[in-house]
Amino acid sequence: MLRAKPPADWLDKIRGNLPAVLVDHAHLERKAATTALCLEKYKDLYPHVEELNAIAIEELQHFQLVLNLLKARQIPFGHAYPSPWISGMMKSIRNGSRHQAIDHLICCSLIEGRSCEKFQMLSGALAECDPELAQFYGSLVESEGNHYATYILMARSIDDAETDRRLDFFLDLDAELVQKPNAFPILH
Ligand SMILES: [Fe+2]
Ligand SMILES: [Fe+2]
Q1: 32 CA distance to ligand 2 middle (Å)
Q2: Which ligand is in closest contact with the Cα of 140?
Q3: How far apart are CA 130 and CA 161, in angstroms?
Q4: Separation between Cα atoms, residue 3 and residue 173, nearest integer Å
Q5: Distance 110 CA to ligand 1 centre (A)
Q6: Is this model's pTM higher than 0.90 or not?
Q7: How far is ligand 2, taken at its centre, from the CA of residue 1, in Å?
Q8: Of 60, 178, 73, which Cα lies nearest the Cα of 121?
């Protein structure tokens, strides 16, 4: 479904900066947990509050798993780098309760979808040089893929046609932003 691949040098940059990437990944999981809770503010998502709680718990568990890896590798937990891709997507979320909920869900679903894609790439690329990390990234693929699908279904439960229309818009935006060069060793 995604309309562009990450830049050609993305994988090498990630592979060459694994300690910084793990810190960035820890923040991503932390933000994924808080985002699931944040989505509970929308009236249209009140029927999904327990499902969103379950995602928040799962993301918090992922966060803890990354923190465990940091500790085992004696990498200090540090600050997060900004992601122009994520902020570029979030900036396009419209105001107005229903529109905002649909756009927010689509953005979250594409972040989850890109995580799923990139974790799969990393799992393959690290198989020989860092089997432990390769296994770890492989173990997250299914969960992030499920989050992608869940968020899209939640948007569809609000308005199917509007979700299709906005998904088309955000897929184009994602394809444009994902190709932009980024100086930092970050997953997104
Ligand atoms: Fe996660
Ligand atoms: Fe996720």
Answers
A1: 6
A2: 1
A3: 44
A4: 10
A5: 13
A6: yes
A7: 18
A8: 178
C-alpha 188 to ligand 2 mean position (Å)? 13
pLDDT, tens digit, for every residue of 4-39? 999 999 999 999 999 999 999 999 999 999 999 999
What tokens appear for 80 in the block? 């997060």
User: Ligand 1 centre from 58 Cα, in Å?
Assistant: 7
**Segment 104-121, tens digit of pLDDT:** 999 999 999 999 999 999
Instruction: Please list all protein residues whose beta carbon sits less than 5 angstroms from ligand 1, which is an ion.
Output: 29, 32, 59, 62
Calculate how far, in angstroms, residue 119's C-alpha sits from the geometric centre of ligand 1. 10
The string of DSSP letters for the chain reads --SSPPPTTHHHHHHTTHHHHHHHHHHHHHHHHHHHHHGGGSGGGGGGHHHHHHHHHHHHHHHHHHHHHHHHTTPPP-PPPP-HHHHHHHHTPPSSHHHHHHHHHHHHHHHHHHHHHHHHHHHHHTTTT-HHHHHHHHHHHHHHHHHHHHHHHHHHHH-HHHHHHHHHHHHHHHHHHHTS--SS----
Ligand 2 centroid – CA 27 distance (Å): 12
pLDDT at 182: 84
